[in-house]
Structures are given as C-alpha cells and as structure tokens.
Amino acid sequence: ILAEVIKAGATTLNIPDTTGWNMPWEFGGLIKKLRDNVEGSENVIFSTHCQNDLGLSTANSLAGAMNGARQVECTINGIGERAGNAALE
C-alpha cells in the first residue's frame, strides 16, 4: 500500500503507534524495515505519530528518528488524545 501511495504522489508517510504498545526497538525496526523495503521510500518523508499509553511515546519517536523518520508528530507537554503523545520539550 505504501508503495502505491508514493506512486500516486504522497510526499509524507505517517507511521503511527496509535495504541502506544510498541517497544522502541520494535518501532524503530519497523521504520527501518519500511525505509529499506518500500519502493520509492527514498523520495518521501517518514513521519511518526506515537501515543503514550505505556509511557513510551518519546522513546518510540526517537527510535523512529534514529531509523530514518524525518518528522515527529508531538505535542506541548505531551497533551493529546487518551494518554497523550510524545512531548515536544
């Protein structure tokens, strides 16, 4: 699906952890796997959107960035829906 949306003109791919249950090595590994294997991934920005249900949103966002994500969706003070998102500060 990601390769097809790139072909259709997408310039940013947002990869979420919408339930906040990923461990940092899992989420970072997912970003790396997608960057390495999705056709056309070198032409788009990968973005992360991590929820904080288990207190790992910042760690997962950083793991995503360390593995090729160039954009992190975050909030001031971590305030967001449900348990919140990665804190900007």
Write a compact overview of the structure shown.
This protein has helices at residues 2-7, 24-37, 57-66, and strands at 12-17, 45-50, 71-73. The chain has 89 residues and is an alpha/beta fold.
Task: Round the mean pLDDT to the nearest integer and report it.
Answer: 94
Structural class by secondary-structure content: alpha/beta
Rounded Rg? 13 Å
Q: How far apart, in Å, are the first and last alpha carbons? A: 33 Å
Description:
With 89 residues, this protein is of the alpha/beta class. The chain is built from three helices and three strands, in the order H-E-H-E-H-E. Helix 2 (24-37) packs parallel to helix 3 (57-66). It is elongated.
Descriptors for this entry?
89 residues; three-stranded parallel β-sheet; alpha/beta; 3 strands
Secondary structure elements and pairings:
Blueprint (H helix, E strand, L loop, with lengths): L1 H6 L4 E6 L6 H14 L7 E6 L6 H10 L4 E3 L16
Parallel strand pairs: 1-2, 2-3
Helix pairs in contact: 2-3
